TrEMBL record:
Official protein name in the record: tRNA(Ile)-lysidine synthase
Stored SUPFAM superfamilies: Adenine nucleotide alpha hydrolases-like, MesJ substrate recognition domain-like, PheT/TilS domain
Source species of the chain: Pseudomonas granadensis
Signal peptide location: none
Lineage, highest ranks first: Bacteria, Pseudomonadati, Pseudomonadota, Gammaproteobacteria, Pseudomonadales
Catalytic activity field: cytidine(34) in tRNA(Ile2) + L-lysine + ATP = lysidine(34) in tRNA(Ile2) + AMP + diphosphate + H(+)
Gene behind the chain: tilS
A molecular function (GO) term: tRNA(Ile)-lysidine synthase activity
Pfam families xref list: ATP_bind_3, TilS, TilS_C
Acyltransferase recorded as keyword: no
Annotated ranges, domain Lysidine-tRNA(Ile) synthetase C-terminal: 364-432
Domain notes: The N-terminal region contains the highly conserved SGGXDS motif, predicted to be a P-loop motif involved in ATP binding.
InterPro entries recorded: Lysidine-tRNA-synth_C, Rossmann-like_a/b/a_fold, TilS/TtcA_N, tRNA_Ile_lys_synt, tRNA_Ile_lys_synt_N, tRNA_Ile_lys_synt_subst-bd
Length: 442
């Protein structure tokens, strides 16, 4: 005999225990069975337990006529339970996957509304976990994807928590009927053109007919894979610690790794470490596109290979790989006259420059390397700029955007490079502050 629906409140409390000191619990309330039961459970628990302030969020996608009545239903349910409700209307952008577009619109709101020390609670359950595992298996997911829906993860400035992942849909239905709850049945949940609905209505019933414990078993497999992923993450952190070596251009604020530290690892271990490093920076390549990493590593020593990814590029230069995105991929404007050298000069797509000490006499201008530049160096005479940059092992991607200070045709300084950023006895230095843009995804 399975657990009674009356046991659900006591089963829910342990999974919520770590979050009892949160400032606010916000329930993502679609009005469907899962979130209706979750809302009711929490409202009932709040009568006997000291819980954070409760409120609900309903996202109105406006994708079908039936949905127009849902905000009113959700408001009535929340009013009856004494839980404040926020209703947010979103515009779902058209695309290849309507499911994904709706999810993106929904989570954009959740990210905005979840404040510091807030917890956003959602109603995914064990059946959802099994469907997710099957769906990702059909898409050829790796260990991370097959670890399923996580019980918690960051969202906005707080945490998203899924306290029902060990509860079956049948148990939620039993609870709803026992408490005479009413909920919305989304007509789109019957549309078997959607992959998840096909799995829910066609595949999972067939599996559970043959293996009654199939969903529980799949959830257990997902837990094993989550543990395996945790070990892979630990290994990646160890390998990245070896590759995040000190380097002379840390002031650029660009993520970079030493290639030699990665090259001694097996190919699978390289991909594991690099995938972990790239994850906050870009959408990761699929298995077929990891050949770009091999090409980057195997290029000739004097080459400057580039691996283009969804949200930026990896450049190999001076024994390192560098992550470039945003304005680092846009060529800076040719230059600008510096009318007021005592003030900071903002450069198009290239941060800003300023002097420390008294500025040299003018007229001054900032420009970028075109090739053939020569600079007068104390006790060395005239030297080609290319040679001077080589001596300082300046990465290739940086050479065309290092600000150069000219007076007429005379090259006076190269920003930020010791010995080239101003005269040895001159009392001034040229400082460049590269872009303040976030190098990762917003």
């Amino acid at each position: 005999m399975g657990p009674s629906p009356t046991d659900l409140p006591s089963r829910l409390l342990p999974s919520l225990e770590p979050w009892r000191d949160a400032a606010h619990w916000r329930i993502a309330f679609s009005g469907g069975l899962d979130s209706t039961v979750l809302l009711h459970l929490l409202a009932q628990l709040a009568k006997s337990q000291s819980l954070p302030a409760l409120s609900a969020i309903h996202i109105h996608h406006g994708l079908q006529a039936a949905a127009d009545a849902w905000p009113q239903h959700c408001q009535a349910v929340c009013d009856a339970l004494g839980v404040p409700l926020i209703i947010e209307r979103v515009k779902v952008l058209p695309g290849a996957s309507l499911e994904r577009a709706a999810r993106n619109a929904r989570y954009a709101v959740f990210n905005t509304l979840t404040e510091h020390n807030d917890v956003l609670l959602t109603g995914q359950h064990r059946d959802d976990q099994a469907e997710t595992l099957l769906f990702r298996l059909m898409r050829g997911a790796g260990v991370r994807g097959l670890s399923g829906i996580p019980a918690q993860r960051p969202v906005g400035q707080g945490m998203l928590v899924r306290p029902l992942l060990n509860v079956s849909r049948a148990e939620l239905e039993a609870y709803a009927k026992a408490h005479e709850l009413s909920w919305i049945e989304d007509p789109s949940n019957q549309d078997r053109h959607f992959s998840r609905n096909y799995l829910r209505h066609q595949v999972v019933p067939t599996l559970t007919e043959r293996w009654p414990q199939a969903q529980a078993s799949m959830a257990r497999s997902a837990a094993h894979l989550r543990e395996a992923q945790g070990l892979l993450d630990e290994l990646a952190q160890m390998d990245l610690a070896q590759a995040c070596t000190a380097q002379d251009f840390a002031w650029l604020g660009l993520p970079s790794l030493a290639v030699a530290s990665l090259a001694v690892l097996s190919p699978a271990r390289q991909r594991n470490a690099l995938g972990r490093w790239l994850e906050p920076l870009t959408r990761l390549p699929d298995a077929d596109h990891w050949s770009g990493w091999s090409d980057l590593c195997e290029a000739a020593a004097d080459a400057s290979p580039i691996w283009r990814l969804a949200d930026g590029e990896l450049h190999r230069s001076t024994g390192r790989v560098w992550w470039l995105s945003g304005q680092w991929l846009r060529a800076p404007a040719i230059g600008a006259d510096w009318q007021t050298p005592s003030l900071t000069l903002r450069l198009a797509d290239n941060g800003s420059v300023m002097f420390s000490g008294a500025a040299p006499s003018g007229p001054l201008r900032i420009a970028y390397r075109q090739g053939g530049e020569v600079m007068q160096i104390a006790e060395r005479g005239h030297r080609d700029l290319k040679r001077l940059l080589n001596e300082r092992a300046v990465p290739g991607f940086l050479r065309g955007r290092l600000p150069l200070l000219f007076r007429g045709d005379e090259l006076l300084a190269v920003a930020n490079l010791p010995g080239l950023d101003g005269p040895a006895q001159g009392g001034w230095k040229l400082h460049w502050h590269p872009s303040g843009e976030d190098q990762g995804l917003s």
